[in-house]
Amino acid sequence: MYKPWLERMDGFRIFGNLYFVGCRGASSHIIDTGSGLIMLDTGYPQTLYLIIENIYKIGFRTQDIKYIIHSHGHYDHLGATKALVELTGAKTFLGAGDREYANGKADLTWAKELGHTYYEMFEPDCLLYDKDVIELGNTKIACVASPGHTPGTMSYFFDVTDGKRIYRAGTHGGTGINTLQAEFLDRYGLSYDCRKDFMETLERLKKEKVDIFIGNHVWNNDTIGKYERMQKGEANPFVNPGEWQRFLKKTQREAATLF
Fold first, then answer.
1. Which of its termini does the chain have fewer beta carbons within 10 Å around, N or C?
2. Where in 146-252 does DSSP place strands (E)?
């Protein structure tokens, strides 16, 4: 039995207008653009109440959410979107290659593998393509198509500020090699070309400048450990310009075991 209350984490400010509001099972972030909130990933439907609680605790309201942007079309990243849209009226964005994941036409959301059934289907308002830019208030998000983990995986890069300093934040939309395993690809009759796409994406993303790396899972960038260090009064560990490159190289080494 899935126990969502065990996924609870406190929401907190990462830096300036960038916040973590997610759970241990899947990350969610919000950007305060000055003209409403942009939310990155909604997590599981069973943990939506924890995310809403975090949003209120850090001083915002769900009604402030204007855009919901997805890293990719898996259940643990878009499972709560339909309910949140019904609550807020937010506009949804998703990589074009994952449209049929979201609307239920392709049974590839990884829900079954996670022990769930995906029944919270929705039709994305805006399909994203490489080099698209999402803009709201003081924030412009550069979209980089990053296929491999899923066809429509998107990586995002944007500036965050505390009013004095500006840093470049970035996230890879999906680095799990679970969907690159032969067992999964063969089960669904998928092409092995996704492995090549995955590796090419990693090389391409090395060109991006990232001062603050955020993961779509807490273990990608040690979200929990960094938060605990901040609580102890350490200098902000999220501001780490070298971490992005190290993460990409580590992911390349892991993916290379498939070849």
1. N
2. 154-161, 166-171, 212-213
Say whether pLDDT at 22 is over 90: yes
CB 155 within 8 A of CB 170: yes
The two structure tokens encoding residue 227: 């938060």
Amino acid at 25: G
Sheet holding 91-95, edge to edge: 12-15, 18-20, 29-32, 37-40, 65-69, 91-95, 126-128
Query: How many residues are there in the chain?
Result: 259
Cβ-contact 73, 152 below 8 angstroms: yes
Give the predicted TM-score (pTM) of the model: 0.97
Work out the burial of residue 59: count CB atoms within 10 Å of its CB; fewer than 13 is exposed, 13-18 middle, 19 or more buried. exposed
Per-residue pLDDT tens for 31-85?
999 999 999 999 999 999 999 999 999 999 999 999 999 999 999 999 999 999 9
Amino acid identity, position 114:
L
What does the block give as tokens for 208?
Answer: 């991006």
Best CA proximity match to 98, nearest among 71, 119, 117:
71
CB 162 within 8 A of CB 64: no
Which CATH entry fits the domain spanning 4-256: 3.60.15.10, 2.40.50.140, 3.30.360.10, 2.60.40.10?
3.60.15.10
- Per DSSP, 220 falls in state T
